[in-house]
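#struct-pred

JT: dropping the chains for the assembly here, can someone run the whole complex?
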Amino acid sequence: MASRVKFENSCEVGVFARLTNAYCLVPAGASEGFYSVLEGELAGAVTVVRTSVAGTRIVGRLCVGNKRGLLLPHTATDQEIQHLRNSLPDEVVVKCVDERLSALGNCIACNDHVALTHPDLDKETEEVISDVLGVEVFRQTIAGNILVGSYCTFTNKGGLVHPQTSVEDLDELSTLLQVPMVAGTVNRGSEVVSAGMAVNDWTAFCGSDTTATEVSVVESVFRLRDPRPGALGSDVKNSMVQDFFTS
Amino acid sequence: MRLENCWFCSSTIYPGHGIQFVRNDAKIFRFCRSKCHKNFKMKRNPRKVKWTKAYRQLHGKDMTQDATFEFERKRNRPERYDRNLTEQTLKAIPLIIKIRHDGLEKHISNRHKPGKRKEIQKDSKEVAQDIGMLPKKLISNELANPEKTKIKVKVVQQQTEDYAMEE
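RK: done, full complex below.
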């Protein structure tokens, strides 16, 4: 079920939140409205941790992880690392990565099995990713952009990429990642799909500017809809009605 | 807050001191004071500048391998907070510092020992051979002058009294 949400008047939810199947990292100090939407959807299934990374609120773009681990940049302070280690479940391995490209969320996109990385990432970082996150690592570009973590987001069920990705690239990515991929936009045509939304295997949070069509695309590719046969039409109708009321 | 080490001289940088320089390849250089910063800007290699820790360790002046250095290694994997562990670590820190400092002093005094021994040998050889070079006045030991002791003789007083009485 894809929800629309705003973080402090910004629709770029993926910048501020890092959502995985085991935990969710959000920055502290925002209005309770944002937190209530998140916690309402995620309930007890996922630990929601309020933190900062390297003293900033852009936690979604600086760190990356899946249900097995979390990678932080070397700029993260000792107190933040300790706080994360204390708050996250023991199965999640927290590790700091010494890497020139410190915005890991922009450089790495991953799910529980595969990771796509920036082509210029260090060899040691690649090894750390495969070690801590337990994934297979591929160096790729998306539609000619090296920041794979910003222009592509995928979970175990499906993936969304930059709208200008060619059909051949899309097919290649689908076979590499073993999940269906779709080229689309979020937040009224924003190409930076990963920064505009936070998604895991059963929920997605898009920015409030996301149109009903975009939400329906997200819901269909990430398999977030109810698997009932008649549900397809009713969901589209619901999102359209919602759009009328919000616009 | 974290206590870093100066890139040039390796001393600790306390909060509120020094300058950090971030290069274009995202490497961070921290300096404890302008002396180190200016030396860096002059492109001096700390391994060649005598007063830095890098030079001293490279040239064997300070100890390089010790068990106490293992404690300060940077670990990238944090551990869950445990109050007992934290308490014990805080108690252990001054002890470890003391042990390291004593080890360092011992290393330096051991380094000086053969030199001191040589110096003492040289000095005793010089005293044995060249003591005659000094002016006689200054020489006040048994080697140069044999000891002249004063011998006390008892004068018999009775004889003088006899002479007086005879007259």
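JT: nice. Chain B has four helices and four strands. Strands of chain B lie at 4-5, 12-13, 19-22, 28-31.
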